[in-house]
Protein 1
Amino acid sequence: MSETSSRPLGVAMIGYAFMGRAHSQAWRTVAAAFEVPAVARRVIVGRDETAVAEAARRLDWEEHATDWRAVLERDDIDIVDICTPGFLHAEIAIAALEAGKHVLCEKPLANDTAEAEAMVRAAEAATARGQIAALGFTYRRVPALALARQFVEAGKLGTIRQAKAAYLQDWLVDEEAPMNWRLRKETAGSGALGDIASHAIDQVQHLTGQRATSVRGRLATMVPQRPGADGPEPVTVDDAAWATLELDGGAIASVEVSRLATGAKNRLTVELFGTRGALRFDLENPNELWFLDATLPVAEQGFTRVLVTEPEHPYLEAWWPQGHVLGWENAFTHQARDLLLAIDGSAGFSPDFADGLALQRVLDAIIESDAADGASIAL
Amino acid sequence: MSETSSRPLGVAMIGYAFMGRAHSQAWRTVAAAFEVPAVARRVIVGRDETAVAEAARRLDWEEHATDWRAVLERDDIDIVDICTPGFLHAEIAIAALEAGKHVLCEKPLANDTAEAEAMVRAAEAATARGQIAALGFTYRRVPALALARQFVEAGKLGTIRQAKAAYLQDWLVDEEAPMNWRLRKETAGSGALGDIASHAIDQVQHLTGQRATSVRGRLATMVPQRPGADGPEPVTVDDAAWATLELDGGAIASVEVSRLATGAKNRLTVELFGTRGALRFDLENPNELWFLDATLPVAEQGFTRVLVTEPEHPYLEAWWPQGHVLGWENAFTHQARDLLLAIDGSAGFSPDFADGLALQRVLDAIIESDAADGASIAL
Amino acid sequence: MSETSSRPLGVAMIGYAFMGRAHSQAWRTVAAAFEVPAVARRVIVGRDETAVAEAARRLDWEEHATDWRAVLERDDIDIVDICTPGFLHAEIAIAALEAGKHVLCEKPLANDTAEAEAMVRAAEAATARGQIAALGFTYRRVPALALARQFVEAGKLGTIRQAKAAYLQDWLVDEEAPMNWRLRKETAGSGALGDIASHAIDQVQHLTGQRATSVRGRLATMVPQRPGADGPEPVTVDDAAWATLELDGGAIASVEVSRLATGAKNRLTVELFGTRGALRFDLENPNELWFLDATLPVAEQGFTRVLVTEPEHPYLEAWWPQGHVLGWENAFTHQARDLLLAIDGSAGFSPDFADGLALQRVLDAIIESDAADGASIAL
Amino acid sequence: MSETSSRPLGVAMIGYAFMGRAHSQAWRTVAAAFEVPAVARRVIVGRDETAVAEAARRLDWEEHATDWRAVLERDDIDIVDICTPGFLHAEIAIAALEAGKHVLCEKPLANDTAEAEAMVRAAEAATARGQIAALGFTYRRVPALALARQFVEAGKLGTIRQAKAAYLQDWLVDEEAPMNWRLRKETAGSGALGDIASHAIDQVQHLTGQRATSVRGRLATMVPQRPGADGPEPVTVDDAAWATLELDGGAIASVEVSRLATGAKNRLTVELFGTRGALRFDLENPNELWFLDATLPVAEQGFTRVLVTEPEHPYLEAWWPQGHVLGWENAFTHQARDLLLAIDGSAGFSPDFADGLALQRVLDAIIESDAADGASIAL
């Protein structure tokens, strides 16, 4: 691990598309919002020299580079932030960890379990050397969801018996929407399952504090081919998926995801039903957490819309006065903060690569269940 | 007062239009839903023989009649339910009270203060004889509003400092909507003010438990003429109104009403802001009361949507299981119940004619303020 | 079939609990709200003489009786309205149909498929004689859901690819809530599945106009025993259930139901996602239909809250001015209207017993799938 | 005006509290999100050396300074961004304009009309020299409000007859909340009126495109004294205000603001009612615009929730995929973008100082009306 006492922590970011822009915003903002170790945006890495140079300029990185392996050898790089498509995660993350760098890897951890297992082995070794191997399930750091976790931990829901999660989008409603890497199995691993069910399942397990012990799943590809560069091309991943999960705390969770849910823009919803209370969340209104306290007198019960913008709420002391809401992007700043504090030794970081592997196994089990006509698959 | 021990209470209803239909539904339903003295729908009265005969058949009244004065002489009539336009209220109500009948009079009590004062004198004399003179501000008996009143009385809001009420409709948005009696001063007294601001102001005073001590008001007639039978006819009442009220408990209330509020169908909204809590209500979602408890820990505060369908809620024990919502009409059944119980001596009835007069004076003061360029008018 | 030209249609209602009260309200109200053939509430039938006599008085029926077989022999009875628990449906309905009566049978049609098949045979014979055999999936007559069906039929959703329905209640959250007939397999057939999933599945099939061709299902009994008269007693039905349905139009539907969904009071929700639009409905706000028109310019798209209270909306011309909302009970009046019009020959009635049988087969298939570890069961 | 072709535009920001932090975030972010001229955060200025040095570090400015007059003399400063309390605006802005700088001045323009007039004179002279004098009513650049303005301009509302705006907060509910500069007339000018009614009135005028021609107003100070450094100190500004405005297009607008509206966190709401449509907005859900199209068939009408996150929406092409919502702070980035583009000559900037003066006159008229017992004050 690099010596960080006398200079800022240097970050190298691999990838500069959607996630790269979001992570850049976080790295630019984190030290203004939070008390964290100093950080420097050293280098942004991509394959296309022209494009990555432009990205460096726009996103305000000191340098750009096209060879991520060379970047890993630099002494001024302490953190490697991996924002590439999933099929590149394993190779880069393992090399970065072996080079002694802290790693932040976007979800999903990998496209299959074998890769994920190799990554976990590398992370275990690195962690033993004091490095951090962090996984980017950023929604855990949406304040309302962090508050939800606090409520569950404080016992406000009692025993959770049922969970209901969905992640609905509609960007594939149009049958003429063209092919891209997210619709091919070899680059994306899976479709809606890996891309968005992964978030829904991570929230279910994280919020309840319960792990899946068995699953039943169904996948569907409703639009089986789409326009490619050379004419119609088969879609080789799912565009919708359904699952039920048995959790080790006795709860049953349902998960439904789709990229053809007309009118749903980015609708990750989670509902938890417990013996003492209930919670609801919708990512399209991310500043609200709906909480029902079933221990109140019946005549006063109902879902309370908590506007999660008070200084008493997670991460909010760093931002604006009450009622001045945050956007989708702020959770990335919270993630950068928590990573910097973890490197600084003042806190741990969750989720880690092992969490990512465990989640990958749940996704694989859903695929296996679907292939087995819906049979339960134990984890 | 009639002897009621050995036979059902006999009701005569004057008027059979919108309000007559709603009251009929209540009289037909009340004994099924609630434990009340037996009641008989004896006679429905109107000027048009054919139409009232048809109304009697449809609305299930035993008889119909065209001469309300003759009906008042019948011994089998105990209750006179006045559903006519406001300009007929005074004459009928006073005669009915003098004939020894209980009276339920639709709001507004009268079209002007002089009439209202005469009605109050008649009611005082009748009340001394044991009769009930009830005023039909039915919305007080919407369960969510009745619950709101309970919350205020229980101190859940602390000291109420500010109230904000509105009643917005849009049935006059179209400039070609034709003239009718509600748009002429001689029949309607006023426009949106008497028709709907009366509800908003009644709720403000009733819910807060505070009375207006002075008002400032503004009236407007945005569409000054409309198609009449003989060509364009001037609209002689307001179609929108605004007022602020100083209340005797120190609060200030705002009221805004309109018949040209595009998209508002029957949107009576009331918000109360107190030192310990707040309340919100919207008549377009009448089964919901939104309550904020400002004494909770800040991280848990927010408006709670209480779905007012529990047996613990006002009037609800008589209806369906929880979550099976009521409609607009049910409050009329609650009103009939409360009137029957009042007649039976087991409870009082509020509002009474004196409340109607007090409200009329507030409305008059708003008109006076508008005429005086917005000057405060004391009550 | 009875001769009905010269006298009102006579109704006999069997059962006087929750459903009996709701149906009574409908029979009392229908002729006031709608133009229908005259109808008389002749007799209410129950096993407990004292209780049924009291019900007759409260609910305003002419007579009461304890022997439903004797009632079927009366010439002045034209309609038999069956509001008993499901295990009595078959016997009564078949006898009533054989006695030449029109029958309205509450859902579920029967507790098992064999009974349902016998009922369908009886209904087919009766229908050939001109009788009506109607099934009470009353929610089809909630105006917002009737409007939803109109929108789908008019093509406003295009091809429906995905449906998402849930029916969540919370009356069994408390582990100490006592046993009752709804929790025993021998009286109730199934638990949440038959009671509420039946509604959700009926809506999915009715609204989409597509029928299930195969299902995968999961059942759970989260609280396995409850206090009985003689100590703890096993709960022998499901208290939550999940299913996915393949529909013959190519859509996939998910259904989730629970009686332990803390904070959900009567939350039947349905969402439909089509190539041209989407719909959402929630029974806790039954006057609202949310519609998204995906053919509008993108900048104007979104879910529109249609307040279903306009005279242009189904059933609404009979009720109150716009914005004056209906309650849960009004749909029963619509059902009574539609039945009377069907008897009068001016319209058909849907759903019928065959629909009930088809639905029963879907429910059975879900049970079978659960028993087969989630395997697909073809219909 | 400085020569900007060969180097970034240099910004000096005066003030580093709440507004300074929000503006810094915008200056750091603008070039990443939008194509704009290069910009450099040269110097942040404040009176307290230690605090401003720390702010420079945290907010990532190149330098800090304590003497704003000296900063105005620097050639590398092109833009002066004024984030101080209002009583300092006039002096700094006039000096900066006279020094040839572009100025962005936070709202309100000034604490009284005399100051505002002097500022407008300075701005007029500067504008003639090619400088920009921009006023920071940032909410005009919340995408949903910018979209609202587009809808009105496109005629989607027809003639707007009625507007209803409120800005409700609750940070002064507690009577023990201490005195600060915002509660003293000499530093703040007015209370809720200048601070938040200014926003509401700016929106009403901007969105409708109509200007106030006369007002009636009422002010109240509900908590007349608060804890000061030396014991109780009188509150010399309003904590709530109400007004009605006649607009030059024939509409009437109501405005209500409060700092004691329990449960309202930052609730700026605007509703517009026109002959062809209506709009609603709530700053606590700033990504939503609710639009009703009154030209649709009645059965389909209702308020549509437009989630303003599509690339077709104002400013959104620069941010994230659809459904990934923005926060309160992003509007400041939009403001910085528009200012840079205005300096670059590719667009104008609105509002300007003259708009601020016009608004100040409306605020003054409300105060005058209140002092005249609610009399109408012409503008």
Protein 2
Amino acid sequence: MKLNLAENLTELRAKSPLVHNITNFVVMNYTANALLAIGASPVMAHAVEEVEDMVAIAGALVINIGTLSPIWVEGMKKAMLAAVKFGKPIILDPVGAGATAYRNVTLSELLNTASPSLIRGNASEILALAGSNIQTKGVDSTANSTDSLQAAKLLSEKYGCVVSVSGATDVIVSGEKVAYVDNGVSLMTKVTGMGCSASAIAGAFFAIQEDGFEAAISAAAMMGVCGEKAFEKTKSPGSFQIAFLDSLSELSPEELVELAVVRLL
Amino acid sequence: MKLNLAENLTELRAKSPLVHNITNFVVMNYTANALLAIGASPVMAHAVEEVEDMVAIAGALVINIGTLSPIWVEGMKKAMLAAVKFGKPIILDPVGAGATAYRNVTLSELLNTASPSLIRGNASEILALAGSNIQTKGVDSTANSTDSLQAAKLLSEKYGCVVSVSGATDVIVSGEKVAYVDNGVSLMTKVTGMGCSASAIAGAFFAIQEDGFEAAISAAAMMGVCGEKAFEKTKSPGSFQIAFLDSLSELSPEELVELAVVRLL
Amino acid sequence: MKLNLAENLTELRAKSPLVHNITNFVVMNYTANALLAIGASPVMAHAVEEVEDMVAIAGALVINIGTLSPIWVEGMKKAMLAAVKFGKPIILDPVGAGATAYRNVTLSELLNTASPSLIRGNASEILALAGSNIQTKGVDSTANSTDSLQAAKLLSEKYGCVVSVSGATDVIVSGEKVAYVDNGVSLMTKVTGMGCSASAIAGAFFAIQEDGFEAAISAAAMMGVCGEKAFEKTKSPGSFQIAFLDSLSELSPEELVELAVVRLL
């Protein structure tokens, strides 16, 4: 398999896809800025009254359950059904899966509403979603991404989707295919919304690349490489979050190819 | 007409008006920081239970429909009625007008509830609000601000308010009067909440300057000039959003006058 | 009394307590980043459907009424009852107390639901909460922290809790005990969410230090010292907010002890 990392980033910036996010209150601003920085166009809209119209004009739908409540879940379901109707990719970010019963029940309902194109989470979340009896610590992972390979395979099989597990090594699974992305820095876990931004940026790549496995790898590589570039500028979390946004904008397709460390199995 | 840009900024900083925002989840933090940086005092409150009390003590009310839902619209209407009752200026930011039917219907309802002192949006939004059959791309503009002059005039006439269209050239209309502000940089479109901050800052100027045309011009000039100052420091969007806040705080009234490029017709 | 500022900070970073925040839309991102920067683990969850589960795994609960509405108040009450049940400290941040009747009524309800371990606010808020007939200007203080000593004592007595008043001098009261913290810079009032972050960081200290008076002093000293460190880097509010997050991460326990100016009465 040949990866077209450079072409994907170039196309993303050329097409500037509209990414419709129904996401949590904590990360909305950072996610929107990350999408703008990479060259996409973000929109946030959650009301049942308008999600269908918004999905219709969007290139991808990103669902993130970070700060959920019943009325938001209604909007998420309606948007997911609209995405199926209009043939738009759905990215599901199961923030805090395993932390509360309500999150687990909601995730079941969402996954019964429509199969996503991509599930992207940290290892704790992916393990919880796959039915492991794991207690996540709020929204931060307590497991290693590479330990979640079987869980990722199970979810990929069950929902016919790509699964991307963020961590020191990102693990991306699509059916029998597995990719590892060895980019990124641990400081990324000290900035809120990094995982959520990874999901949103995956949405942007899914909007312009039909091959979901490749889109997910491109997103993970972009995130990791930009994390490394930001880390060259600063080792502290406040300035890092800003440097990261700068990197999303500054990174050239050639640099992405040069710096990405992707292993395909 | 003589513009008192320097005096307006000086007075804003001296009086530090309280600006009551009912705005969207994406930009609340940035908007609050922009208002603090320029020298105003922000408050966010949306519940029908308290908006009237908050409007009563505020210098201006800013309504922004970026992430609307029915319960928030109720709060917006009640706040607008309170603003009329207490004689406070209302700024309306029609985020995403034209993107969904729900936004269009809501905007009609809000405009039927009370006439704003200022409508501020991008060209797509102003065109959509004026009834042009334009499809906005989510919340980003697909039209040029100067193409929206007729639409701005129509809205100004219909609602007896000032209309400010943000873009490469800002267009401000008040009845027969038209002003163009040629400040700003295109990087401002790569940071989320810039338009929303323009509306909030307009609220601060309306709170201290009764002449709405002059208040709107002052706000547009301040935004544009501070964008240029920030652009001197950085060309990347993450650090730009921070540098912009710094500029709002650092810019002197004399610099504002010196750098503002305003054409009055 | 011997203060263990260094040990408290060391232990906070070693244990990385989970802090459950039900807070306002404006500051969620900044608060989460502040908690991550200091070494804690933030989680935001407000739905009645899940707050009990989240409190159960958290080390402290932080309630902040900055952008309240009835459905959020329900979640706050349920979470407070769960905190009592599970023996978790509750931090209450009465944002905008005195600004609207709804805020005052809600604060009464919350305080009748459960006694907090700490009430932390600015002087206007503490005075309003203690029944002074003060009109706060939105969410910004119009009084001096040292003028609120009697109000703080009254609240500490009434609710059997620690009371921390932020200002040029922070005043911390626990029954008969009073401490003053003379750190911090006035630029902190020009960044939104500083007070809210102070409350969240207090939550992190309460999670690892049973002595509430000492936990509150540690949090106030940490905030003030990090404000001073950030001020060494920049005098403008945008870059200050970022430098402040960096300082929360960079400050060593030894520096905290060296720079903290605490007077115990």
